[in-house]
């Protein structure tokens, strides 16, 4: 095939506009949705940017999630040797049947119904934070006052993590997600987080409580090491994702005043608006990553056993073959089917929690602050292009 | 049309219960899929099709008659 778009060297992350996927990525998708990519370690692997192909890869168990088989599509300061196999409990980088065993222990805790039952509490947490923000401002940093603390408090309560300790693990998890951090600092942060969770598990053994971790301590035969790694995964995943969606989503609404006005006047649109914001913003901008365990043909391209495959969620979610006029933020479109929570057996376990949080938080913010606006020019909002999860570092707002 | 589910394959993502709550539920303890109505009412057919399409693990499907039934 003669292609005018060059084979990328690592996954393109450079954005021209804050909400649009990198133009190199979309150009590649339009030409070759399953493309070769040169990984930073020199490996000739693949980058999948088309919607159908992305779904096909993520649903296919011949593509492994095992950490020791996967290569990073971005250049990180890590020692050159391959990654270690997952420690017990780190289910996100394992395959069935190990993955299935852990997932089954948690599935019952995250059902649609259970998450909906949290509505009154999430509503109250949201109202409290909005009241506090009003007292302190204007102006305010929406990340610090609203987007981060709400999901943080919710996941802490759900898991049974003392909220007073949040500064400690939020600081370390920010280090883990920083793409430019030095290897020693990353290692130090990982160790501290692990120790934090180990202490917590030890505490739960003594006093289980009726929260999720307490329930796992008493109701399963998981080892302390497994509990530590599962707790770490849930705690970090419950923070970084929803927090970035709330802040970046608010930024996107502020930049699309007609969409914001529609959501403000019709809060019932929130259910659909959340799906559309998830599609439009695709905060998971690197991966999911997989490795082929057999030769597999996807859309006419032969992916050989052992080759690494990186799926681009922003690419897939802006595929016009699936979502017409993908560059339009339209909170009334049918946006379900987006890949922002992934696809296949690893699809986000906490997605129903994230949905409930966002369905409550966005309309509440718009209702409480009818004159909400940016406190700085849009181009001065610091973007998280340097982080493993996209979003904004700060969102200065006024009212 | 009838619907079938394989709880063994289900990964508890809840997309079915979200898309077609009249037809699919989730087991309270295990979190796995439950079929609440098979055959589903005609008015839910579209939602059922969405649910099948959205299910990340291929754990639910539509069959045209009971005779087609085979393990998923
Ligand atoms: S959508 Fe599929 S995986 Fe998710 S709960 Fe329903 S059957 Fe299970």
From TrEMBL, chain A:
Fetch the PROSITE patterns from UniProt: CYTOCHROME_P450
Query: Could you give a single Gene Ontology term from the biological process aspect?
Result: antibiotic biosynthetic process
**SUPFAM superfamilies given for it?**
Cytochrome P450
- InterPro entries registered for this protein in UniProt: Cyt_P450, Cyt_P450_B, Cyt_P450_CS, Cyt_P450_sf
- Region ranges (Disordered): 1-22
Which of UniProt's keywords are assigned here?
Answer: Antibiotic biosynthesis, Heme, Iron, Metal-binding, Monooxygenase, NADP, Oxidoreductase
Q: Which Pfam families does its entry note?
A: p450
Tell me yes or no: is Hydrolase among this UniProt entry's keywords: no
Pathway(s) the chain acts in: Antibiotic biosynthesis; mycinamicin biosynthesis
What GO molecular function terms would the record report? heme binding; iron ion binding; monooxygenase activity; oxidoreductase activity, acting on paired donors, with incorporation or reduction of molecular oxygen
Q: Which family does it belong to?
A: Belongs to the cytochrome P450 family.
Name-wise, this protein is Cytochrome P450
Annotated source species: Micromonospora polyrhachis
From TrEMBL, chain B:
Q: Which domain of life is it from?
A: Bacteria
Secretion signal, residue range per the UniProt entry: none
Reply yes or no: does the keyword Glycoprotein apply.
no
Q: Which InterPro entries match?
A: 3Fe4S_ferredoxin, Fe-S_cluster_ET
Listed cofactors: [3Fe-4S] cluster
Q: Which residues form a coiled coil?
A: none
One term of GO molecular function:
electron transfer activity
The job of this chain, per UniProt, is described as: Ferredoxins are iron-sulfur proteins that transfer electrons in a wide variety of metabolic reactions.
Q: What is this protein called?
A: Ferredoxin
């Amino acid at each position: 095939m003669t292609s005018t778009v060059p084979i990328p060297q690592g996954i393109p992350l450079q954005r021209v506009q804050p909400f649009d996927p990198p133009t190199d990525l979309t150009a590649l998708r339009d030409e070759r949705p399953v493309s070769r990519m040169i990984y930073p370690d020199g490996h000739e692997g693949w980058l999948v940017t088309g919607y159908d192909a992305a779904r096909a890869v993520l649903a296919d168990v011949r593509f492994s999630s095992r950490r020791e088989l996967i290569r990073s599509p971005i250049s990180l300061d890590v020692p050159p040797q391959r990654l270690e196999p997952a420690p017990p409990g780190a289910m996100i980088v394992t395959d069935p049947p190990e993955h299935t065993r852990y997932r089954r222990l948690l599935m019952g805790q995250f059902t649609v119904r259970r998450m909906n039952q949290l509505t009154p509490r999430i509503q109250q947490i949201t109202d409290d934070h909005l009241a506090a923000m009003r007292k302190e401002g204007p102006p305010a940093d929406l990340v610090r006052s609203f987007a981060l603390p709400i999901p943080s408090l919710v996941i802490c309560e759900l898991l049974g993590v003392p909220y007073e300790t949040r500064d400690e693990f939020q600081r370390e998890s920010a280090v883990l997600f920083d793409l430019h951090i030095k290897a020693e600092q990353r290692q130090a942060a990982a160790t501290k987080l692990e120790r934090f969770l180990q202490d917590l598990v030890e505490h739960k053994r003594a006093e289980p409580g009726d929260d999720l971790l307490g329930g796992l301590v008493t109701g399963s035969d998981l080892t302390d090491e497994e509990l530590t790694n599962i707790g770490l995964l849930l705690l970090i995943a419950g923070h970084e994702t929803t927090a970035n969606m709330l802040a970046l989503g608010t930024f996107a609404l502020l930049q699309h005043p007609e969409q914001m006005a529609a959501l403000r006047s019709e809060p019932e649109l929130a259910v659909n608006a959340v799906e559309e914001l998830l599609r439009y913003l695709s905060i998971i901008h690197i991966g999911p990553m997989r490795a082929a365990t057999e030769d597999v043909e996807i859309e006419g391209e032969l992916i050989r056993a052992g080759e690494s495959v990186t799926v681009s969620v922003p690419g897939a979610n802006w595929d016009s073959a699936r979502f017409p006029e993908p560059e339009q933020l339209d909170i009334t479109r049918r946006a379900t089917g987006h890949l922002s929570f992934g696809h296949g057996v690893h699809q986000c376990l906490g997605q129903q929690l994230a949905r409930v949080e966002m369905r409550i938080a966005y309309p509440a913010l718009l209702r409480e602050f009818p004159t909400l606006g940016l406190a700085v020019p849009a181009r001065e909002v610091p973007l998280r292009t340097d982080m493993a999860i996209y979003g904004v570092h700060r969102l200065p707002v006024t009212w | 049309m009838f619907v079938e589910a394989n709880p063994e394959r289900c990964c508890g993502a809840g997309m079915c219960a979200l898309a077609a709550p009249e037809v699919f539920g989730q087991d309270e303890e295990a979190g796995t899929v439950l079929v609440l109505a098979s055959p589903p009412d005609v008015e839910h057919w579209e939602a059922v099709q969405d649910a099948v399409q959205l299910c990340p693990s291929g754990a639910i499907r539509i069959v045209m008659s009971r005779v087609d039934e085979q393990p998923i």
